[in-house]
Specification:
Helix content of chain A: 25-40%
Structural class of chain A: alpha/beta
Oligomer: heterodimer
Mean pLDDT of chain B: 91
Strand order of the largest sheet of chain A: 6-7-8-3-9-10
Distance between the termini of chain A: 32 Å
Number of helices of chain A: 9
Order of helices and strands of chain B: HEEEEEEHHHHHHHH
Strand content of chain B: 5-15%
Mean pLDDT of chain A: 92
Radius of gyration of chain B: 30 Å
Strand content of chain A: 25-35%
Largest sheet of chain A: 6 strands, mixed
Order of helices and strands of chain A: EEEHEEHEHHHEHEHEEHH
Largest sheet of chain B: 4 strands, antiparallel
Number of strands of chain A: 10
Low-confidence stretches of chain B: none
Number of helices of chain B: 9
Strand order of the largest sheet of chain B: 4-3-2-5
Helix content of chain B: 55-70%
Shape of chain B: elongated
C-alpha cells in the first residue's frame, strides 16, 4: 500500500549538512501496524513527515496506492486526503469547537453537507469516548482528550493510512493510556498505521513490524518479538538496554 | 508574605484632585495672558439657525396675512392679478396687510437648523477615515500575504512598498500624491488624500498582518494541510482567524492613528475637522475654545473605536 523507495532527506543549515533520512526503503501493507522507534534526532519523525508530504525530500519516492509524491504532477492535497496525521502537540484549531474541528476538512475538502459531516463527527467523537465534549473549545479539554479529538479529526476524512508522530509524548502519564486505547482499537479494526512512539508496550502488543532508525538510517525492520528479544543491530541493542 | 488587600478609593480621589489641580493651573496660565474665554460663541459653529430670505416675485400688494403659531402665511397679488403665497417666520415679517412691495423685496425669512462648519468637518473626517481605513485594510491584507508569499517578485514588491511608505513622513506622501501624482493623473484633492492615507495605513496593516500570521504556530498550518486543505484554505479557515484575533489590538491602534492622521490632509485644503476648526478660529477669534472642541471631537470618534475594539477582543477571546 505504502511504498518508500530509497528516500533521502537532507537538512542543510548554513553548510551544516545532516542526512535526516538516509536511503530508506520499506513497504507497508494494507492493515499493517508499523512502529518506528529510535533515539531522538534519528530521523524517525522526519521520515514520517515525508510520508504525507509535510516535509519535501531530496531523492527517492513515496507512494500510496500508486499515487507518487515524487511525481511533480501528483496533487499533494489529494494525496493528503488519504493520509491522516496525528501530531505530538495535537494541533487542534483553538478558535473552533471540537465539532467544528472535526467538520472543517469534511466541509472544505470533502464537500459534505452539514447533516452528514456532523453525524460523522459525532459518531467519531463517541467512538473515541468524548461525545459529550462536542461543543467545547479545545482549551477546555485535557491533553488526553485533545489528542483523542485530533485522532477523530483525522479519521473524519476516512483516510487509508494513519500516521502518528509521538502521539503520547506531550501527555501527562495518566493520560497516555486513554490515547493508546484508541490507537489499539483502530489497529484491531484493521487501520493501516505508522506510529513513531516511545511506548514500547504498545509496540510489543500491537505492532506487526518494528522499524529502528538511527542517524537517518533504517537499521532494523523486524517483527516485534524478534526486535525486542534478539535485536541484530548493535545500536538497537544499546537503545533497548536504555529504554527497557 | 500574606497578601494584603489594599484600599483603592483614596487613590482615585487623589487622581481627581490632580486633574482639578491641572485644570486650575491651565486656567491660571490663560488668565496671566489675559485671555478671555467665550464658550458661548462656540455652539453656533456646531449648528445654527440658517435664514432663507423669501422675496416678492414681482411688484405686488400684500392682500392677506395669516398667522399660524410662529409662521405667517403671506398672500401677494401682482398687477396682473397673479397670486403669490409665501410662508415666513412670524417675527421676521417686515410688512403689514395692504403694503406694496417691489420685485425682489424681502418679505421675511425662513429659519431652519443647519450644521455648522465643525460638524461638517467632523463628518468629512469620519468618512475620510472610514474609506481610507477600509482601503488600507484591504491593501494591508493583500500586502501582508504577499510578504509571506513564496513568489520572490511578490515578496520583493511588497517589501519595497512597506519600506518606502514606512520610511517617509505621511505629510511628504500627501504632498507627493497631491502635487505630483495628482497633477499628472488629474486627481481631485479628496482622491489624492484618500490614496495617500490608505497606502500609508496599508503598509502598517501589512506588517501587523504579517507578524500575526507568523505568530501562529507552524503546527496549525501543518494540521490543516495534513487534512487535505490547500495553502489558501488553510490560511483562510485556520491561520487568518487566529491571526486576526491576535492582531486586533495593534489593528485598532492603527485605525485610531488613522483618524488622527486625517488631520494632515488639511494641508491640501480638504476641509476636515482641523481645517474647519482653523477656519472657525479666524472668524470667532476664540482659538483655545475651538481647538479644545476639535480635540474633543477627535476623542469622540476614537474613544468609541477603542471601546468597540476591546469588546470585540473579549468576544473573540471566549475560545481561550
Amino acid at each position: 500500500m505504502i511504498e518508500v523507495h530509497e528516500l533521502v532527506k537532507v537538512f542543510d543549515t548554513r553548510g551544516h549538512i545532516v542526512r535526516a533520512v538516509d536511503n530508506v526503503s520499506t513497504t507497508v501493507a494494507q492493515g499493517e501496524v508499523l512502529v518506528v522507534i529510535g533515539p531522538s534526532g534519528s530521523g524517525k519523525s522526519t521520515f514520517l513527515r515525508c510520508l504525507n508530504g509535510l516535509e519535501d525530500f531530496d531523492s527517492g519516492s513515496v507512494s500510496i496506492d500508486g499515487l507518487d509524491l515524487a511525481n511533480p504532477k501528483t496533487d499533494v492535497n489529494a494525496y493528503r486526503r488519504e493520509v491522516g496525521m496525528v501530531f505530538q502537540h495535537f494541533n487542534l484549531f483553538p478558535h473552533m469547537t471540537v465539532l467544528e474541528n472535526l467538520c472543517l476538512a469534511q466541509k472544505v475538502v470533502r464537500k459534505r453537507g452539514k447533516a452528514e459531516r456532523e453525524a460523522k463527527a459525532r459518531a467519531l467523537l463517541d467512538k473515541v469516548g468524548i461525545g459529550q465534549k462536542a461543543n467545547e473549545y479545545p482549551s477546555r479539554l485535557s491533553g488526553g482528550q485533545q489528542q483523542r479529538v485530533a485522532i477523530a479529526r483525522a479519521l473524519a476524512m476516512e483516510p487509508k493510512v494513519m500516521l502518528f508522530d509521538e502521539p503520547t509524548s506531550a501527555l501527562d502519564p495518566e493520560m497516555v493510556g486513554e490515547v493508546l486505547d484508541v490507537m489499539k482499537t483502530l489497529a484491531r479494526e484493521g487501520m493501516t498505521m505508522v506510529c513513531v512512539t516511545h511506548e514500547m508496550g504498545f509496540a510489543r502488543e500491537v505492532a506487526n513490524r518494528v522499524l529502528f532508525f538511527d542517524h537517518g538510517k533504517l537499521l532494523e525492520d523486524s517483527a516485534p518479538e524478534d526486535f525486542f528479544n534478539s535485536p541484530k543491530d548493535l545500536r538497537a541493542q544499546a537503545f533497548l538496554r536504555q529504554v527497557l | 508574605m500574606i497578601k494584603q488587600k489594599k484600599v483603592q478609593w483614596p487613590w482615585h480621589v487623589l487622581t481627581v484632585l490632580v486633574l482639578i489641580g491641572l485644570a486650575g493651573a491651565l486656567y491660571y496660565a490663560t488668565s496671566l495672558m489675559s485671555y478671555e474665554w467665550r464658550w458661548n460663541r462656540v455652539p453656533q459653529y456646531f449648528a445654527y439657525q440658517a435664514e432663507e430670505a423669501q422675496r416678492a416675485a414681482e411688484h405686488s400688494t400684500i392682500i392677506e396675512l395669516v398667522r399660524k403659531g410662529d409662521t405667517a402665511e403671506v398672500v401677494l397679488r401682482g398687477e396682473d392679478g397673479k397670486e403669490q403665497r409665501v410662508s415666513v417666520a412670524d417675527n421676521s415679517l417686515q410688512w403689514v396687510e395692504g403694503d406694496e412691495v417691489d420685485e425682489g423685496d424681502v418679505i421675511g425669512v425662513n429659519r431652519h437648523w443647519a450644521a455648522g462648519p465643525l460638524l461638517w468637518g467632523l463628518w468629512t473626517t469620519v468618512w475620510l477615515s472610514l474609506v481610507s481605513g477600509v482601503l488600507g485594510l484591504i491593501i494591508g491584507l493583500a500586502t501582508g500575504l504577499c510578504r509571506l508569499s513564496n513568489n520572490p517578485t511578490l515578496r520583493d514588491l511588497s517589501t519595497l512598498y512597506v519600506e518606502l511608505v514606512r520610511g517617509t513622513p505621511l505629510l511628504v506622501q500627501i504632498f507627493i500624491f497631491y502635487f505630483f501624482i495628482g497633477t499628472v493623473l488629474n486627481l481631485s484633492r479628496e482622491f489624492a488624500g484618500i490614496a495617500a492615507l490608505s497606502l500609508f495605513t496599508g503598509a502598517y496593516v501589512a506588517e501587523i498582518i504579517r507578524s500575526g500570521v507568523q505568530s501562529i504556530a507552524r503546527g496549525q498550518n501543518e494540521a490543516a494541510r495534513s487534512l487535505g486543505l490547500n495553502g489558501s484554505q488553510s490560511m483562510r479557515y485556520v491561520v487568518l482567524p487566529q491571526a486576526f484575533k491576535r492582531v486586533l489590538p495593534p489593528l485598532a491602534g492603527q485605525f485610531i492613528s488613522l483618524v488622527k492622521d486625517t488631520s494632515l490632509v488639511s494641508v491640501i485644503a480638504i476641509t476636515e475637522l482641523l481645517k474647519s476648526g482653523r477656519e472657525v478660529i479666524t472668524t470667532s477669534f476664540s482659538p483655545f475654545e475651538i481647538l479644545f472642541c476639535v480635540a474633543g471631537l477627535y476623542l469622540l470618534i476614537n474613544l468609541p473605536l477603542s471601546h468597540f475594539a476591546s469588546r470585540l477582543e473579549r468576544r473573540l477571546a471566549q475560545s481561550d
